[in-house]
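ok, trying the design again with the full structure, not the truncated one.
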């Protein structure tokens, strides 16, 4: 959903903007409250070259000041062979009409995968389109994580809440479509002192999660707790921080001791959600290389939330490519001290499929989904601009005399992030698949 925890965002305007100091709610789960005002009288804002120049200066000054590190030279992979999309549509100078037309086609072979590494796709219960996408493009994903569960506490009692969200028929359908693994997300909402300071509670929590996996025939879970613990101040306490890491290791070992009900050749998997480092000087609440090293033998992967870079007060790109690269360098130790770099294959590099609509005049903004984006393209017929530094597309429009800047993923921006993941040997985590355009999935 630190820079975001996936669960409250738009739901509480992703999930969570739970902690992560620089994450904002509006950017996490753009599924609610993000519709563009359709009031009569809206019009396109004619942008002069000088106005565009100053706007770009504004974006660069406000959004790129916090870039982490410099990109190191390395050879990126060669081009993919995109069956149907062999035409010149993955480009920087794309027009709004091309996007509308090409996205409407969706005629590619959905059974073919172009991205060779694991792909984790998140789905939220408040965005039904995600469940449809999972069924339509099942073969494009290796892991699917519905955002269903919360581990809570009440006094001495620890319990799992969320089974009411589960759709077993849908799970059966996607399993018929391919060999995808189903790992629902579990967010730890239990009060840290109730859970971490009492090892008896560790056992209870592990047993509850294991029991749910067995009864519901899951292939494991995606666990999120780091942002919650940061919010409670747990990570500033060395002893509590140590206990938190030990709990995750205990859960990982318990799950690895049990085989999946659907495939007895595989153990139950545990993927742990982490935020990108905030700077080269790691704070107590940052998940760093040593934490990665400590958990690497106990979990099966790390879902890295490399998105939600900008906010209403510093409008700009959703996830600048150089920032993504720097985050990976910092997390993996850069110089490979202690062999941390060898764990790059365990990272599911986060890619946002949502965008943001910033009101430059008011200093406000809201998250938008693919549906919202297409509506804006239809209504305003904007000129799209490509920002080389962030490797993202954006456009400007005016509504009720208020100037807006819209940043939303494109085929080219996603393609370049897939190249980045391939260069590291990493997988992908997509937040979340109900928010993207259908033709994005041809790239996978």
């Amino acid at each position: 959903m630190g820079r975001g925890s996936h669960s409250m965002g738009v739901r509480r305007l992703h999930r969570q903007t739970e902690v992560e100091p620089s994450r904002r709610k509006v950017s996490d789960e753009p599924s609610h409250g993000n519709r563009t005002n359709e009031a009569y009288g809206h019009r396109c804002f004619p942008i002069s070259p000088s106005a565009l120049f100053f706007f770009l200066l504004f974006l660069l000054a406000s959004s790129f000041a916090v870039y982490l590190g410099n990109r190191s030279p390395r050879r990126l992979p060669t081009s993919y062979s995109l069956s149907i999309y062999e035409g010149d549509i993955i480009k920087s100078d794309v027009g709004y009409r091309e996007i509308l037309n090409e996205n409407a086609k969706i005629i590619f072979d959905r059974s073919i995968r172009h991205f060779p590494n694991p792909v984790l796709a998140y789905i939220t219960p408040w965005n039904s389109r995600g469940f449809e996408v999972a069924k339509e493009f099942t073969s494009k994903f290796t892991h699917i994580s519905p955002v269903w569960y919360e581990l809570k506490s009440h006094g001495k009692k620890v319990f799992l809440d969320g089974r009411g969200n589960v759709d077993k028929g849908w799970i059966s359908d996607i399993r018929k479509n391919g060999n995808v693994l189903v790992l629902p997300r579990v967010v730890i909402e239990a009060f840290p002192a109730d859970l971490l300071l009492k090892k008896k509670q560790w056992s209870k929590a592990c047993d509850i999660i294991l029991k749910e996996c067995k009864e519901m025939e899951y292939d494991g879970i995606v666990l999120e707790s780091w942002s919650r613990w940061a919010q409670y101040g747990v990570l500033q306490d060395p002893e509590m921080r140590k206990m938190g890491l030990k709990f995750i290791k205990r859960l990982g070992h318990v799950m690895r001791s049990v085989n999946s009900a659907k495939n007895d050749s595989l153990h139950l998997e545990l993927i742990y959600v982490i935020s990108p480092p905030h700077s080269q000087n790691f704070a107590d609440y940052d998940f760093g290389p040593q934490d990665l090293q400590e958990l690497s033998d106990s979990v099966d992967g790390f879902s890295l939330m490399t998105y939600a870079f900008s906010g209403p007060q510093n409008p700009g790109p959703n996830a600048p490519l150089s920032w993504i690269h720097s985050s990976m360098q910092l997390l993996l130790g850069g110089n490979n001290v202690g062999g941390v770099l060898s764990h790059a294959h365990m990272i599911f590099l986060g890619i946002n499929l949502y965008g943001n609509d910033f009101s430059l005049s008011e200093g406000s903004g809201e998250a938008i989904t693919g549906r919202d984006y297409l509506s804006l393209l239809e209504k305003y017929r904007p000129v799209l601009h490509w920002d080389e530094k962030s490797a993202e597309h954006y456009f400007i429009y005016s509504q009720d005399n208020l100037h807006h800047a819209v940043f939303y993923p494109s085929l080219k921006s996603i393609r370049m992030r897939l190249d980045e993941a391939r260069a590291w040997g990493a997988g992908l985590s997509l937040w979340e698949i109900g928010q993207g355009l259908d033709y994005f999935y041809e790239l996978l």
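Keeping the full-length input from now on. The mean pLDDT is 83.
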